[in-house]
Structures are given as structure tokens and as C-alpha cells.
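Whiteboard transcription, Tuesday session. T.W. wrote the C-alpha cells on the left side:
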């Protein structure tokens, strides 16, 4: 290619490049113009107040009839199974403590039974229809001549009390379970026994959906002499080691949850009066003391459970 041809070719390429650049600029300019010219979406106007007045007027008679028939008379309730669960857990823990806890030590049998006795006092206070009465007292009720029946007001306070009572019952159940855990960790023998029971239960639940009794008997026979069963002994030993390692974190979680529940119970006590106030005040004091005694031994670095 001669110098002249090369120059012409370069000039032609430059011209084509300029044309492409110009077309691209025009395209971008057109897009910008479209984006600028596009109208903003119209704002949705608020509904007129007359709309709500219309609804209230049209359905007022229906609402009054609904109330006269007492369709809105439902009162919040506390789950009754929680109190039954607390009773069963306390009874099981008491029997466990009497049979396996050592009589002396940092958390002795007498201390553990003391916690059980306080839990039993709470159960006594909540027996009968006590929970139902406390929640019902929080429902505003006035008699109106127009409707000729009790008119129930806001049930927000009753709902709040019912949920707080349920949460407190769950906290007391946790305390009863912790009392049993204290005994489990009291001696190496107790911990091994607890681990064997736990593993056996896991195996039965996993492979015996319809014939648990047969599997349980087979496991009992298999583990009768753990020394001759290397696999079972290794499994128990590994689980014991894991539980020992997890014990500080598990304890800290229990202490934190119990202390938090004590604070909530104390706050609720200040909002109530009468027997319900006394119950929450006493519960807050018990939970705070329980968490403090467990936490004190943990922070001091002393053995947590009986030795």
C-alpha cells in the first residue's frame, strides 16, 4: 500500500468512527430527553373522611347487635397445661433429689429441696381458678342500661397478664429442671447415669416408632455390662466429655434467662395490686435469688455442682 492509499484509508476510518460516535451521542441524548420528559407518577389521594363515616354508620347497628349477643365476651386465658407441667416437673425433681443428691456440699440436698419447696408454694398459690380470676379482673366491665348487659371493654391488660403468667410458669419449670441437672452433675456416676438414659432415649425415638418397648428391652440387655461393650462405652464417654465442656455456657444461659424473667416479673408486680401483685413480687425475688446463687459460684471459679 502506498503512502497516499494509507492516508486515504486512515481518513476513511476516522470518518466512520466520528459517525458512530455522533450516532451514539444522539441516542444517549434521546434517552436523557425521554427520562426527563417522563411524568412522575401521580400521588394517591388519601381516602376522604366521609368514607370511614359511611362504614361506621352502615355497620353500627350490626356491631351493637354483635355485642348484645355477647359474641365479643371472650376473655384471654392462661394455658392450663403449663401449671400441670410445672407440677409434674417439680414432683419428678423432688424424687430425683431425694434419691441421688448428696446431703452435703456447696449445693446440698437440703438447698435443692428448699428450692423445690418454694416451687411447691407457687403451685399452691396458683391452684384452682386463681389464674382465671386474676386475668378476669383485668377486663374492664360496665353495665349499660341501653344494652341491658355487661359491656366488656379493652382486654389488652388481661391479654398482657395472661402472657406474663405463662412466661413466668415456663421460668419456674426451667428452675425445676435445673434442680435435676444439679444432681446429674453432682458426681461422675450420676452424670454417666444421666448420659446413658439420654442416649437410650435418643436411640428408642430414632428407630422404634411403633415398638419402643421391644427396643428398650434390647438396649437394656446390650448395656447391662458396659465394660464388655466397647462401642457403647466410647459413646457414653464422648457424650460425658461434651456435656462437661458445654456446662459453663449452659449454666450462663440459664442464669441470664432466669435473671431476665425476674426483672419482668418485678415490673409486672408494680403494675398490679392484690394477690397477683404479691405473686409476681415473690416470684421475682425467688428467681433473682436462684440466679444469684448459681451465678456466684460460677464467677468465683468454684466447682459449680456438688463434688
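and on the right, the sequence the group agreed on:
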Amino acid at each position: 500500500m502506498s503512502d497516499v492509499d494509507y492516508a486515504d484509508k486512515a481518513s476513511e476510518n476516522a470518518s466512520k468512527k466520528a459517525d458512530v460516535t455522533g450516532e451514539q451521542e444522539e441516542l444517549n441524548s434521546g434517552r436523557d430527553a425521554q427520562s426527563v420528559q417522563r411524568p412522575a407518577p401521580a400521588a394517591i389521594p388519601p381516602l376522604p373522611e366521609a368514607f370511614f363515616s359511611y362504614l361506621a354508620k352502615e355497620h353500627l347497628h350490626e356491631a351493637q347487635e354483635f355485642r348484645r349477643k355477647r359474641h365479643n365476651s371472650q376473655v384471654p386465658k392462661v394455658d392450663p397445661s403449663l401449671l400441670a407441667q410445672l407440677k409434674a416437673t417439680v414432683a419428678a425433681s423432688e424424687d430425683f433429689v431425694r434419691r441421688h443428691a448428696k446431703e452435703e456440699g456447696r449445693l446440698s440436698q437440703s438447698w435443692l429441696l428448699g428450692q423445690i419447696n418454694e416451687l411447691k408454694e407457687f403451685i399452691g398459690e396458683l391452684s384452682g381458678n386463681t389464674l382465671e380470676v386474676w386475668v378476669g379482673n383485668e377486663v374492664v366491665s360496665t353495665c349499660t342500661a341501653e344494652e341491658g348487659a355487661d359491656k366488656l371493654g379493652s382486654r389488652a391488660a388481661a391479654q398482657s397478664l395472661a402472657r406474663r403468667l405463662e412466661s413466668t410458669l415456663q421460668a419456674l419449670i426451667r428452675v425445676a429442671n435445673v434442680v435435676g441437672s444439679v444432681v446429674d452433675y453432682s458426681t461422675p456416676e450420676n452424670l454417666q447415669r444421666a448420659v446413658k438414659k439420654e442416649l437410650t432415649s435418643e436411640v428408642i425415638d430414632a428407630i422404634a416408632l411403633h415398638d419402643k418397648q421391644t427396643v428398650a428391652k434390647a438396649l437394656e440387655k446390650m448395656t447391662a455390662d458396659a465394660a464388655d461393650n466397647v462401642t457403647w462405652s466410647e459413646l457414653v464417654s464422648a457424650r460425658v466429655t461434651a456435656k462437661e465442656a458445654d456446662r459453663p455456657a449452659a449454666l450462663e444461659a440459664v442464669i441470664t434467662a432466669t435473671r431476665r424473667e425476674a426483672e419482668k416479673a418485678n415490673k409486672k408486680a408494680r403494675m398490679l395490686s392484690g394477690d397477683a401483685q404479691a405473686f409476681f413480687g415473690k416470684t421475682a425475688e425467688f428467681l433473682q435469688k436462684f440466679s444469684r446463687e448459681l451465678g456466684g459460684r460460677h464467677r468465683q471459679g468454684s466447682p459449680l455442682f456438688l463434688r
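Someone added at the bottom: The chain is about 75% helix and 5% strand.
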